[in-house]
Amino acid sequence: MTIYEVGGAVRDRLLGLPVTERDWVVVGATPEAMQAEGYQPVGRTFPVFLHPDTGEEYALARTERKVAPGYHGFTFHADPEVTLEADLSRRDLTINAMARSPEGEIIDPYNGQADLHARRLHHVSEAFREDPVRILRLARFAARFAPLGFRVAEDTLALCQEMVATGEVDALVPERVWQETAKALMAPAPSAFIRVLRDTGALAVLFPEVDRLFGVPQPVKHHPEIDSGEHVLLALDQAAGLDADLATRFSVLVHDLGKGITPAEELPRHRGHEARGVPLTEGLCERLRVPSDTRDLACAVTRYHLDCHRVRELRPETLLGLLNGMDAFRRPERVDGFLTACEADYRGRLGLEHRPYPQADYLREALRRCQAIEARPFVEQGLKGPAVGEAIEKARLAELARLQPSD
Description:
alpha+beta, 49% helix
């Protein structure tokens, strides 16, 4: 029995990055031998064990064979005779197909170190084409390592395009698409995830609403980058720079979906794109089974981001409608994510990345003033039921009118 550290931990250590989790491969062992050493079995489709002290996962060296379409269509073979090189050969990218021996030697049969130095994301073998999840993982690694200069190798990109053309991506289940997307959106450069998916053709299959934005013009006065898709990518990276959470970053990704269906005769203007975009956002969330809290914030950002940008110009009735529409009084914790998404959208424009966003403070002050209005005084006046709510609404409108700039 020989145990090797494999995968991401080896890669990140060579890159000088912190190692947050470790994976292990065991060569020359049987399930019985592992259990005799105190390891607890957890794998359902192939033998994986938990270390009795650390709880880390240890997998028996294995090979795999494609037997059916999709990423579930594999059989696995684990045996003491399976070599480390054979196990590594089934991995997706060369930079993930390295191992470290107990003595600290790097085992690199597929030139992962050379690709690290070249900043290249390259598939290990033709077996890459057998698992469509690997396209998502490739795009996710691009989002993680783009700031270090990594790019997808041309032949790997061509291989992915062939996989899309043959329908492999159609077999992906919503849960796995969302899982990989969530990880990619939280990477340092989430725009790279979308770019790689688009370059492979997978974006049109998995996120057709987003893919439709590319090539759609916007008024150059407000959007020097012109292209609606490019704007979304700029805004996504702004959200990452603002250290936004997942729900906020996803909201930025979908906030302009309505621009993708603007009638051609109205371009480059997009009057009403906010309302048009809400059903598209809802449909995408339903299709990918996006968590409800994330969906609700995304719909609020889609519907109200333009109102937020011009919040100082809104009539009190419109401003109160914005606060009610985003459910700010019952869900005040949603406000920060909403405002961060709007700020990322506002700054996600070519050459305007550093402009301030005072609208956020204005909306927070509007909410604070409205929240300070309580029901008790109206109840003490003898009002009951709906009359109390009407009085609170009227008082909020008066307070918002006082907040409005005099100029």
